[in-house]
UniProtKB/TrEMBL annotation:
Species in which this protein is naturally found: Chytriomyces confervae
Name recorded for this polypeptide: ABM domain-containing protein
Top-level division of the source organism's lineage: Eukaryota
Length: 135
């Protein structure tokens, strides 16, 4: 006979340090972009190289995923773009809050300007997601 499940407040939860050693990043840095359809193929190719370089050179960047998504719904100001854009989500996996702050202080502005100067695309948004629970 198995024991009944523990109430939620008594459930054992792995520490974030155990999770990160298992390959789960405690921080995701997400960048959302709107790319003209006619430039999407070239930009995505460039972005793969750009992200690989970031993971290899920026301390604490452990992994990166690049996604495309359908046109975001519920954002009225995007309705003017029609179907002229491809929406890209880039998620960088960051090893720690310390590494996130290093990036923001030392790299983010220069890399953003480099990307903007090369392509002229606007970043729709950036956000930092901090892991609270992993199951």
């Amino acid at each position: 006979m198995s024991a009944p499940p523990l109430p939620l407040h008594e459930t054992k939860r792995d520490s974030l340090s155990n999770l990160t050693s298992a390959g789960i990043s405690p921080i995701l840095y997400e960048v959302n972009l709107s790319v003209p359809k006619e430039n999407a193929r070239d930009y995505l190719s460039y972005l793969g190289t750009f992200c690989r370089n970031a993971v290899e050179t920026v301390e604490g960047f452990t992994h990166c995923n690049v996604f495309t998504q359908p046109k975001p719904t519920g954002l009225h100001w995007l309705s003017e773009e029609g179907d002229a854009k491809v929406y890209v989500v880039v998620q960088y996996h960051i090893a720690s809050e310390h590494h996130m702050n290093l990036y923001l202080d030392n790299y983010q502005d220069a890399l953003s300007k480099q990307d903007q100067n090369k392509w002229g695309f606007l970043v729709i948004s950036r956000r930092i997601l901090r892991l609270q629970v992993a199951i």
